[in-house]
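Predict the 3D structure for this chain.
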Amino acid sequence: MVRLENIKRDGNYVNCDCYPEGRREEHFTMKVDLTDNGKTECSIEKGYATQMASIAIFRLVVRCKNSGRELPTEYSYYW
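Done. Predicted structure below.
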């Protein structure tokens, strides 16, 4: 599970605070490029948690677009 908070979209980028497995002490930030995932920036070394957070953001953006909803400011993604 990854908890995403302070989700903000600016054009082709989504910024957020991330908490893997809900552990507040392992906080990291991400700036996801929606056009090229390889350009995603993380405040920690890329690994499993950052990969899952990136997937969560992409799925959330697509789901909101398909349903016509606005992007929420918080979201939890379970794998």
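Residues 8 and 57 are 11 Å apart (CA to CA).
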